[in-house]
From TrEMBL:
Its main location: other. Residues 1-19 form the signal peptide. It holds the Pfam family DctP. Belongs to the bacterial solute-binding protein 7 family. Residues 260-287 form a coiled coil. This is Tripartite ATP-independent transporter solute receptor, DctP family.
């Protein structure tokens, strides 16, 4: 009897010990999963007051919320991670996780060059109808296949305007004017056709180059102009509205593959909500930027856009044949 009682006690203690170990292991595993955080990097070329950064900030907040804190996004504004080209190349190799990039994508996926053609889109509604429809979806799918960079969302930008240190009312007034343009073929050839002397240059160099006379003019959306304080070194603002453009929230496909399916879905949902927020913000900042330039003493000049548009038609047709006549025709037909 004594041996039987001893054996029973031993078995009971063993069961309790195993049960306790099992509970501890489960608790430890759960804590490890809950505490695991993936930190990703998002870069762009604008400063912290710009709509791009505020839209990025909202995106980061939404990603953290929708993943219950398993994914965090750190922001790197003001070209901290490099120029647009640097950011795209970083996403291709996986050293950059997200970026906001505009027309420079045409250097990596040539069909994007079509979207940069001057006077292609009539207004922002025309642009939205294309980007948020089948055309934009197809373009992003092709880009992913060819570059390894995933398009999440298109954010709308306000139209590009011309600033200069002389009045420009017609293309003839552009003769001899050295104008900074982004390193995009459509921009270079378009401004050349309009009569200017285009000079590709990183945006971070524009202020000092205008200040020292290296260039005479530049073209950008209104909020870009005021965020870079270009109203301090430019006297005239021309309402050319030559490009209705976008900036694209991009993601490295290498990063995308590392996330769980639920985290991937959370990122996509966050991008959509950030798009809606950022688009509303851009419209507001456009009005504020125009007032800032007027208050700084810049003279605002309304131009006959048809004169400028006429000058670029040959360039547009040639680049359409080079990079995507079908895409070009699709966009033009949407005007009707």
């Amino acid at each position: 009897m004594k041996n039987v009682k001893t054996l029973a006690v031993f078995v009971m203690l063993s069961v309790l010990t195993l049960a306790g170990c099992s509970q501890d292991t489960g608790s430890s595993s759960g804590t490890a999963e809950a505490g695991s955080v993936t930190t990703l990097r998002l870069g762009h070329i604008q400063n912290e007051d710009h709509a791009w950064h505020l839209g990025s900030k909202r995106f980061a907040e939404l990603v953290e919320k929708k993943t219950n804190g398993t994914v965090e996004v750190d922001l790197y504004p003001s070209s901290t991670l490099g120029s647009d080209r640097d950011l795209v190349e970083g996403m291709q190799i996986g050293s950059v996780d997200f970026a906001l990039v505009a027309g420079v994508m045409s250097n990596f996926h040539p069909e994007y060059a079509i979207l940069e053609l001057p006077y292609l889109f009539e207004d922002n509604e025309h642009l939205r109808n294309f980007l948020y429809g089948e055309g934009g979806e197809n373009l992003q799918s092709e880009m992913l296949e060819q570059t390894g960079v995933r398009g999440l969302e298109f954010f709308i930008r306000s139209p590009r305007l011309l600033t200069a240190n002389k009045r420009v009312e017609t293309p003839d007034d552009l003769s001899g004017v050295k104008i900074r343009v982004p390193n995009i073929e459509a921009s270079v050839e378009g401004w050349d056709a309009m009569g200017a002397n285009p000079t590709p240059m990183n945006f971070s160099e524009v202020y000092s180059s205008l200040q020292t006379g290296v260039i005479d003019a530049q073209e950008n959306p209104a909020s870009f102009i005021t965020n870079a304080k270009l109203q301090e070194v430019q006297d005239y603002l021309m309402m050319t509205e030559h490009v209705y453009g976008y900036v694209q929230l991009l993601m490295s496909d290498k990063t995308h593959e590392k996330l769980s399916s639920s985290e991937q879905q959370a990122v996509e949902e966050a991008a959509l909500e950030a798009r809606q927020y950022q688009n509303e913000l851009v419209a507001k900042q456009q009005e504020e930027a125009m007032q800032t330039m007027r208050d700084a003493g810049m003279e605002v000049i309304e131009v006959d856009r048809s004169l400028f548009k006429e000058k670029v038609q040959t360039v547009n047709r040639n680049l359409a044949d080079k990079y995507g006549r079908d895409l070009y025709d699709e966009i033009v037909e949407m005007r009707e």
